[in-house]
């Protein structure tokens, strides 16, 4: 039953991509801002006829040494949105990021739009709420977000159809957004020469990630794929964040067609065992599990982020 529902969601996504590729519906315009401090791509996707738009995975600048936040990255997005005359309908998170803080609340204040993430965020909130010993003020029901999406849910950006695919593995709540012929896969696959996302965070699972990637790669080969991160593969000097489903199928160094599940899991788990924690994982998670909001101020008026100390 679940499989049949997953098939239906994938069929919906395939139909949306094909209609855009065949010119039956408009293809969206995608403009990307790349944050070199966290290697994150923020995408602004819009309907060129009526200027309706969504912002995907916006970055808040954060200096961990001083605890100071700033808005240079977010303000560039705001300037672009205003210059293009876009109307922001959605602020879409592909997942609760562990490498950067979300600027979604700041952008919502400036531009409007509804902040959305995957419905499985409640599992992530349970895990990290416990890990950071958050108090009762931290609800584990996703209500910090304006909307929670499940697999197969549809929405529109202007007159462009979009559908959500649940692609767990990196985290339990990861989503891919399919908007016309543009696919935003979040942390699943990266550029073909770099491979795939890690699967060793709490609730992550390499086998689940493999299955999510296989599902994504069933989309039409000509679909444009806009990645969440790029880290420059060895031998490549520039950041790149756009490819196609066909290029991933043919050449992804971890997950191209023909790589079997067990081999992928062995490779992914061995590689993950060598990776250090992302520089901003502790502040990012505490903020992103709250939809980009900081914990409430303490009685001196200051907001604090916690560091759980290991090995004492
Ligand atoms: Fe991530």
UniProtKB/TrEMBL annotation:
Keywords: Hydrolase, Metal-binding. SMART domains: Lactamase_B (SM00849). One of its GO terms (biological process) is glutathione metabolic process. InterPro entries: Metallo-B-lactamas, Mito_Persulfide_Diox, POD-like_MBL-fold, RibonucZ/Hydroxyglut_hydro. Signal peptide: none annotated. Residues 39-229 form the Metallo-beta-lactamase domain. The keyword Hydrolase applies. It holds the Pfam family Lactamase_B. One of its GO terms (molecular function) is sulfur dioxygenase activity. This is MBL fold metallo-hydrolase.
